[in-house]
């Protein structure tokens, strides 16, 4: 890096609440969703799926489907098996992990309700849907595997009989002092079990894929509603054998992902395989209820957590045993999701010993994988829940207990018991601000009044002081975690002859507003107008390098890469300017896009003029390449650690079990903020999804392994009347690990909010003897918890 | 096949359609008006909301034959002479969209809401949009945008509207 | 998802519709507002050979008075019901409960008659019409007949309508505030969009601080909407005050057989019925 890379950048754009450039086509209906795409001769693919959780396939006869009007082709799994490899798992977390074969379409056995068994291709989507009815399949039912603990029993039926076990892996971590020794000298040991229900991510845009082949040249263009066009290209090339350089992947406008589109899906491979077989373009679009079966699910963990502490409330050690539901197969990062949480259980707290074990378990359910937060919401929930339980046990205010244990602002950088080095943070400041905005003391007073009067509607206050690790990730750390790829991100900047700017990013936004934020970053460094910057992304032809968008990585890695690339452009332009102005580089000031000679401000060149001079190349410094374009690949030096304090007040109707969120206040520290409007929007959306886990959502299976909550009418995605108005605020402790001082924000709201809500519910009901309510805290469950607590109290009297 | 005549965003189309053809597929696949997306198959998400003869409807839950002789307005017909509808402007200015997939339906539902209740409270906006799901925004900026478009400023709401039973306007309307 | 193919008829009069139904072979579905039928067709839970669209029959729409009865055309939309001045004056409970049905777009298309003929015990209006002592008028090849709401709902998604009959109107005895009537519909559900776990439709007539008559319909407390008869009887003569109302409401679930699903066990539904009946009756009794 040159000295110029550390130049101070005047922030005209960064920090501004710029309305987004992306919006124009989105608010006018001129969007380019994958399902909107059509090409001449486009055929429609539909997929017949297993109606059973687990069965042997005895016979698939697609011939009757081929006779249906409008049908072009129909295939069984066996018809397509040749030339289709296993879907990839890029994160085999242990050396001895059980890694079953995962054909994109089942051949001999189906292992979850929704596993593909046949494909039909027709001239329109109606004909394709009709033809599915004609496919004949005979199954021999096999026993479903549904319960995580039952699945590990010696005599349990097996999801993958050839593997001899449902235990996918065991991943241990033990740091600091010996936990058992620490536990032996603790005054208090609390052990709790928490369960994370299965969640369905529910991006509003259903998945879709379009494959357009150029048969003569063997080239394929694949459009997919994906978060990961770059990774998808590599993986599909491996799965289908289409050479990587013959496959172009485009993520057009993508309508949300939340992890569900961080995947290499069977349907993407199937569409490519079918288009190759037929030499014709093919489209597949899932219906919502189909997606509930076929798009990966999230969470689904059982946590046994134990905390050892002194009587004064000083944490000594923490022990966590996880059972994590893999579902039927290992998809792209399935096994790694709980491991992302492994490092977060100690959270913001200091302690001497930490012991963690995760056991991955196969079940005959839809595979699990990343869902907003991916591992960290689970960890944060467990530690923040048990901190409240410990506070109750010790008769301490839950905020006070946290104060006694958290890392203080003057202790950063701080290496946690789990081995992460938190670069920055100020938990005291965020907490103080949140308490003030929440009116904590007044609410506590009201709560006490209601408790004393025996009010049927109780008030509860929930606290969540979270941090999380995001901004995936330093490549060497990923290596140590046995993740197959690196964690860098690419950016390049092209100065066009007319002075306009193209920023090419390897991130792949699907609602996050990268076009706007990256424009703000580039505009400031280059000193050009915000409007003069275009951001190109999501197409492996125009943006050939990238690691895509997930894990709150885009800004801290990709946005920082844009910053670095822009700095390089300025450094190159400075050489040209110095040459043209006949000054030394050191004598040039650069401000607001203008190079000027120190002491003679009339001697100046704008960066746009430099761009044109470079284009003409008539008068460049000797030996200089005729370009000021620049590229930067950034491998982050650390994770990003946003943190904050969330406070939730609920009213619980003890007669019906109904929970109403009365107020929600959060103060997040996401470091420096590029666009406060976008950041606040990310927090809002994150809160909504975290609250939804606490109160509403659950993928429910019956005892045969059928998904009961199989449509949007049964799986309760909250609407506007179901969520409160949020009060959001910030503290700003710049990250030390990137030049922008930014931290990830995409997942923070989700990670923080779930425990805040459940803590509030339990806090409301604790005087009645309730110590937990399983999620989602549906009215019936709240009512049952109250009833059980009352019965237990009566029994002890 | 059934012959239908439908006016969409000011243009009249005549087509032979299968009776089972959903209005939303008629718009998207036959007319190429892909501004109206499909987000579910159970009439829950509202992404496909359009105006049918002056009322918001979910176009996935109307047959094209049912729209015979009717006028449909979609998100693509809202701007006049390139000028955005006030709701389109407000959604942009208030950051009421992220991925934008729900936005066409959300705007069409909000337009209907404001026609019936030009100056709603925040709670009334939340209730009026109960049939439209958004997974990105947490709804807060959507509510602010609708209030802003109604000329209520960017007034932050007065509460959560979580208790439907406490919704006053509905009660008053019913009494 | 996409419906399977069907034939389509769009009669323009009730007589023509009845003839079409009578002549139909195979499975036939009547398409009213379509807000329940179309999702069922899209999920391919039904495969009708013929769909009879009654959306273009003007005589099926609108609200009128007929002596001491209010008459609502079967194809009157929820939205029209909510805003109709006659409904608000003489069947306020129906207007209040209809505002809780679905969402605004659904209420623009969905109809009173469609909702009743679909006879989903989890939907709000069957219990309301039951509480209002409504009558349903069916037109068939042999002419018209009137079916009391009590006899109309026969089982889960089943009604007393014959396959060749069409529900044409709903007749409700007028219940006006001036005659001492108060009402309330108490719907308990998990999110705004979701079906009622339990709903209570309460009509209460008061005279001088005492309840003289009550009619209580329960949503989702069995395979059909039901009346809370024991509570109704216990309320007669009771003071319109919390304690006596609470005592009467203890019997609200007597004789019900609620179902079990993800959101609620039968036992929880019975508990809710008692709590919500108390609340609904008190709200109705306190209505100005």
Automatic annotation (TrEMBL), chain A:
Record Gene3D superfamilies: Aldehyde oxidase/xanthine dehydrogenase, a/b hammerhead, Aldehyde oxidase/xanthine dehydrogenase, molybdopterin binding domain
Keyword terms of this UniProt record: Molybdenum, Oxidoreductase
SMART domains recorded: Ald_Xan_dh_C
Co-factor(s): Mo-molybdopterin cytosine dinucleotide
InterPro entries found in the cross-reference section: Ald_Oxase/Xan_DH_a/b, Ald_Oxase/Xan_DH_a/b_sf, Ald_Oxase/xanthine_DH-like, AldOxase/xan_DH_MoCoBD1, AldOxase/xan_DH_MoCoBD2, AldOxase/xan_DH_Mopterin-bd_sf
Record-linked Pfam families: Ald_Xan_dh_C (PF01315), MoCoBD_1 (PF02738), MoCoBD_2 (PF20256)
Protein's UniProt keywords contain Thylakoid: no
Entry protein name: Molybdopterin-dependent oxidoreductase
Region described as Disordered: spans on this chain: 1-22
Domain Aldehyde oxidase/xanthine dehydrogenase a/b hammerhead per the UniProt entry, residue ranges: 28-143
Taxonomic classification: Bacteria, Bacillati, Actinomycetota, Actinomycetes, Kitasatosporales
GO molecular function: iron ion binding; oxidoreductase activity
Domain of life of the source: Bacteria
From TrEMBL, chain B:
InterPro entries: 2Fe-2S-bd, 2Fe-2S-bd_dom_sf, 2Fe-2S_ferredoxin-like_sf, 2Fe-2S_ferredoxin-type, Beta-grasp_dom_sf, Diverse_Oxidoreductases
Region (Disordered) residue spans: 153-175
Keywords of the record: 2Fe-2S, Iron, Iron-sulfur, Metal-binding, Oxidoreductase
Family annotation (Pfam families): Fer2, Fer2_2
2Fe-2S ferredoxin-type domain boundaries: 2-78
Keyword rRNA-binding among UniProt keywords: no
Alphabetical list of Gene3D superfamilies matching this protein: 3.10.20.30, [2Fe-2S]-binding domain
Pathway as given in its UniProt record: Alkaloid degradation; nicotine degradation
Biased composition (Basic and acidic residues): 164-175
Signal peptide bounds: none
UniProt keyword Glycoprotein present: no
Transmembrane segments: none
Molecular-function annotations in GO: 2 iron, 2 sulfur cluster binding; metal ion binding; oxidoreductase activity
UniProt protein name: (2Fe-2S)-binding protein
Source organism (scientific name): Streptomyces himalayensis subsp. aureolus
UniProtKB/TrEMBL annotation, chain C:
Name of a matching Pfam family: CO_deh_flav_C
Keywords noted in UniProt: FAD, Flavoprotein, Oxidoreductase
Region (Disordered): 246-266
Residues covered by the FAD-binding PCMH-type domain: 1-177
InterPro entries, per the entry: CO_DH_flav_C, CO_DH_flav_C_dom_sf, Diverse_Substr_Oxidored, FAD-bd_PCMH, FAD-bd_PCMH-like_sf, FAD-bd_PCMH_sub1, FAD-bd_PCMH_sub2, Mopterin_DH_FAD-bd
Matches recorded under SMART domains: CO_deh_flav_C
Molecular function in Gene Ontology: FAD binding; oxidoreductase activity
Highest taxon listed in the record's lineage: Bacteria
Protein name: Xanthine dehydrogenase family protein subunit M
């Amino acid at each position: 890096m040159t000295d110029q890379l550390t130049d101070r950048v005047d922030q005209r754009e960064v920090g501004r609440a710029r309305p987004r450039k992306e919006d124009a086509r989105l608010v006018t209906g001129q969007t380019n969703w994958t399902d909107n795409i059509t090409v001449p001769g486009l055929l429609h693919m539909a997929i017949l799926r297993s109606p059973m959780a687990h069965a042997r396939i005895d016979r698939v006869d697609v011939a009757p489907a081929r006779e249906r009007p409008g049908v072009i082709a129909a295939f069984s799994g066996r018809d397509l098996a040749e030339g289709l490899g296993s879907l990839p798992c890029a994160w085999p977390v242990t050396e001895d992990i059980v890694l079953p074969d995962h054909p994109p379409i089942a051949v001999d056995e189906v292992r979850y309700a929704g596993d593909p068994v046949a494909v039909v291709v027709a001239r329109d989507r109606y004909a394709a849907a009709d033809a599915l009815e004609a496919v004949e399949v005979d199954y021999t039912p096999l026993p479903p595997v549904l319960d995580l603990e039952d699945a590990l029993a010696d005599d349990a039926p097996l999801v993958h009989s050839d593997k001899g076990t449902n235990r996918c892996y065991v991943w241990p971590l033990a740091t600091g002092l010996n936990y058992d020794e620490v536990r032996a000298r603790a005054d208090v040991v609390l052990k709790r079990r928490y369960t994370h229900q299965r969640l369905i991510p529910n991006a509003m845009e259903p998945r879709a894929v379009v494959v357009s082949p150029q048969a003569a040249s063997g080239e394929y263009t694949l459009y997919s509603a994906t978060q990961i066009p770059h990774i998808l290209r590599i993986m599909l090339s491996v799965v289908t054998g289409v050479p990587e350089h013959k496959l172009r992947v485009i993520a057009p406008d993508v309508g949300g992902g939340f992890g569900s589109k961080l995947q290499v899906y069977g349907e993407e491979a199937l569409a490519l395989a079918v288009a190759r077989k037929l030499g014709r373009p093919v489209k597949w679009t899932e219906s919502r209820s189909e997606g509930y079966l076929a798009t990966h699910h999230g969470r689904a963990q059982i946590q046994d957590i134990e905390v050892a502490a002194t009587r004064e409330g000083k944490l000594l050690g923490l022990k966590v045993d996880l059972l994590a539901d893999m579902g039927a197969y290992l998809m792209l990062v399935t096994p790694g999701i709980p491991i992302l949480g492994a490092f977060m259980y100690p959270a913001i707290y200091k302690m001497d010993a930490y012991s963690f074990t995760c056991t991955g378990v196969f079940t005959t359910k839809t595979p699990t994988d990343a869902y907003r937060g991916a591992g960290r919401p689970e960890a944060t929930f467990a530690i923040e829940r048990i901190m409240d339980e410990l506070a109750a046990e010790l008769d301490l205010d839950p905020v006070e207990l946290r104060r006694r244990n958290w890392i203080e602002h003057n202790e950063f950088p701080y290496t946690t018991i789990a081995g992460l080095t938190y670069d920055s943070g100020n938990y005291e400041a965020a907490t103080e601000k949140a308490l003030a905005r929440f009116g904590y003391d007044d609410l506590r007073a009201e709560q006490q009044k209601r408790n004393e009067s025996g009010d049927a509607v109780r008030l509860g206050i929930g606290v969540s002081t979270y941090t999380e690790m995001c901004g995936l990730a330093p490549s060497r750390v990923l290596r140590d975690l046995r993740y197959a790829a690196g964690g860098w991100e690419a950016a390049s900047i092209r100065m066009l002859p007319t002075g306009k700017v193209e920023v090419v990013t390897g991130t792949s936004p699907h609602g996050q507003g990268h076009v706007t934020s990256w424009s703000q970053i580039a505009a400031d460094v280059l000193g050009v107008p915000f409007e003069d910057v275009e951001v190109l992304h999501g197409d492996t032809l125009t943006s050939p390098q990238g690691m895509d968008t997930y894990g709150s990585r885009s800004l801290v890695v990709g946005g920082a890469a844009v910053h670095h690339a822009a700095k390089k452009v300025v450094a190159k332009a400075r050489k040209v300017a110095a040459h043209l102005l006949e000054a030394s580089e050191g004598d040039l000031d650069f401000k607001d896009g203008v190079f000027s000679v120190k002491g003679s401000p009339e001697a100046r060149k704008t960066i746009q003029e430099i761009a044109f001079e470079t284009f003409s190349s008539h008068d460049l410094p000797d030996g200089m390449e005729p370009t000021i374009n620049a590229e930067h690949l950034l491998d982050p030096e650390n994770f990003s650690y946003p943190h904050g304090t969330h406070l939730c007040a609920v009213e619980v109707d003890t007669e019906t079990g109904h929970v109403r969120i009365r107020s929600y206040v959060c103060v997040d520290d996401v470091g420096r903020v590029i666009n406060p409007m976008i950041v606040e929007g990310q927090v809002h959306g994150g809160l909504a999804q975290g609250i939804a886990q606490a109160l509403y959502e659950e993928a429910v299976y019956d005892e045969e392994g059928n998904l009961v909550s199989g449509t949007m009418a049964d799986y309760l995605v909250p609407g506007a009347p179901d969520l409160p108005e949020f009060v959001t605020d910030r503290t700003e402790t710049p990250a030390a690990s990137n030049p922008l001082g930014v931290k990830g924000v995409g997942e923070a709201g989700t990670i923080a909010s779930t425990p805040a809500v459940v803590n509030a519910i339990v806090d409301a009901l604790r005087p009645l003897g309730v110590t937990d309510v399983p999620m989602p805290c549906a009215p019936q469950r709240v009512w049952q918890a109250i009833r059980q607590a009352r019965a237990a109290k009566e029994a002890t009297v | 096949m059934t012959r239908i005549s439908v006016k969409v965003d000011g243009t009249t189309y005549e087509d032979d359609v299968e009776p089972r053809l959903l209005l939303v597929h008629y718009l998207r696949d036959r007319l190429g008006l892909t501004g109206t997306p499909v987000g579910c198959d159970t009439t829950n998400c509202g992404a496909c909301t359009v105006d049918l003869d002056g009322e918001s409807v979910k176009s996935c839950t109307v047959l094209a034959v049912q729209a015979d002789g009717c006028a449909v307005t979609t998100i693509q017909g809202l701007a006049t002479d390139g000028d955005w509808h006030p709701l389109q402007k407000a959604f942009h200015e208030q950051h009421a969209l992220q991925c934008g997939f729900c936005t066409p339906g959300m705007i069409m539902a909000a337009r209907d809401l404001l026609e019936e209740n030009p100056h709603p409270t925040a709670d009334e906006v939340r209730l009026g949009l109960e049939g439209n799901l958004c997974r990105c925004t947490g709804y807060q900026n959507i509510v602010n945008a609708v209030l802003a478009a109604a000329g209520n400023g960017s007034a932050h709401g007065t509460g959560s509207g979580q208790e439907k039973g406490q919704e006053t306007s509905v009660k008053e309307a019913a009494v | 998802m996409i419906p399977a193919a069907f034939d389509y008829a769009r009669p323009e009069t009730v007589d023509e519709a009845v003839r079409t139904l009578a002549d139909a072979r195979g499975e036939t579905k009547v398409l009213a507002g379509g807000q329940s039928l179309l999702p069922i067709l899209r999920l391919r839970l039904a495969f009708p050979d013929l769909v009879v669209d009654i959306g273009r029959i003007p005589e099926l729409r609108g609200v009128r008075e007929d002596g001491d009865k209010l008459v609502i055309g079967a194809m009157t939309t929820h939205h029209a019901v909510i805003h109709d001045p006659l409904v608000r004056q003489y069947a306020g409970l129906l207007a209040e409960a209809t505002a809780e049905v679905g969402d605004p777009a659904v209420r623009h298309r969905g109809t009173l008659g469609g909702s009743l003929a679909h006879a989903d015990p989890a939907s709000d209006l069957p219990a309301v019409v039951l509480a209002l002592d409504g009558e349903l008028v069916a037109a068939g090849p042999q002419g018209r007949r009137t079916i009391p709401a009590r006899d109309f709902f026969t089982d889960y998604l089943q009604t007393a309508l014959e396959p060749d009959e069409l529900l044409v109107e709903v007749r409700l005895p007028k219940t006006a505030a001036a005659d001492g009537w108060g009402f309330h519909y108490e719907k308990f559900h998990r999110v705004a969009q979701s079906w009622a776990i339990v709903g209570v439709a309460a009509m209460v007539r008061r005279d001088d601080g005492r309840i003289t008559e009550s009619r209580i319909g329960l949503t989702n407390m069995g395979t059909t909407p039901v009346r809370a008869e024991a509570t109704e009887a216990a309320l007669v003569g009771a003071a319109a005050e919390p304690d006596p109302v609470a005592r009467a409401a203890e019997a609200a679930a007597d004789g019900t057989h609620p179902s079990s699903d993800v959101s609620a066990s039968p036992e929880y539904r019975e508990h809710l019925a008692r709590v919500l009946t108390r609340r609904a009756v008190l709200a109705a009794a306190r209505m100005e």
